[in-house]
Amino acid sequence: MTELLLIRHGQATHNVEGRWEGWGPSPLTPLGEQQAEAMGARLAAPPFHIDRLYASSILRAVQTAQRIGQHLSLQPTIRGELGEIDFGQVNGLNMDSFRETMPEQFEHWQDRHDLSFEFPGGEQRQAFFHRVAQALDQIVAQHPEGQVAVVTHGGTIRAGLVHLFPKTMSDWWAYELHNGSLTHAIVSDHQKRLLALNDRQHLGEE
User: Could you tell me the CATH number of the domain that includes residue 141?
Assistant: First the structure.
């Protein structure tokens, strides 16, 4: 049985500015650093016993994983497949500017069930979901026992949950995943169970 601890990176500068950032190099804010430290302290204490730490290759996830890893005495293993979806030309825009400058693409993007949607100059939704599913399947296969922490992005966690729980998490856009939150799943040949979604106890939040 593999326990997957899916961690959204701490608050980054683009989160504060309300911009789409995708693969961009937005660093953690001071609050984001605090969130990463709080996550590390939580995972270093019972009932957790992290065997391996993975991270997306994007800066904000790497920075979060490095701080967590200091608490766990683990170096994060970097995997590019765990990155956020590539927003292409939408990268750096806010919601209003996306709507105003690319009205057709914005309307298409709003149909969340349409997996054929592709960000202009970026990544197709279906290809992104497939990329994340493959990465998580490989991690589970490499660690059939124990606890594995994966520091990544909101979109990546949603794509992973759709893959692991297609019946109950198909409305992947309908739930929130806050910066610095923990989502905890159990995966084995016989069961897949979601233990926690968007858990922020370590941040003093419900």
Answer: 3.40.50.1240
Up-side HSE of residue 2: CA atoms within 13 Å toward CB?
20
Q: What range defines the domain where residue 81 resides?
A: 2-87+124-203
Q: How many structural domains comprise the chain? A: 1
pLDDT mean over 169-184: 95
Convert the pLDDT of each residue in 35-49 to its tens digit: 999 999 999 999 999
From 3, 21, 37, 84, the catalytic residue: 84
107 within domain boundaries? no
Q: Which of 9, 14, 71, 153 is catalytic?
A: 9
In which residue are the tokens 């766990």 written?
72
Q: Which two tokens stand for residue 180?
A: 């610095």
Report pLDDT digits (tens) over 85-136: 999 999 999 999 999 999 999 999 999 999 999 999 999 999 999 999 999 9
Torsion sign across C-alpha atoms 185, 51, 54, 17: positive
For residue 100, is it within any domain? no
